[in-house]
Amino acid sequence: MLSARSLSSILQDRGWACVENAVPLDFCEKLLDVLKSELAVPTDEPSRWDNFGSEMRKLVMVWGNQMQ
Hints:
mainly alpha
């Protein structure tokens, strides 16, 4: 388990962090389904993912997530 201090340090160094099991797998699978069906993101083709990136303020909000 990461401490808040460790997580803060990682975020400052890398700009991102991976926290295993933070979101239930079925939520992730549902999100992938939405990205594929609603936004035509080729979730099965990682080599094309960069074509679907954007600045954070331009990303489409996905409602129903645990941040609400």
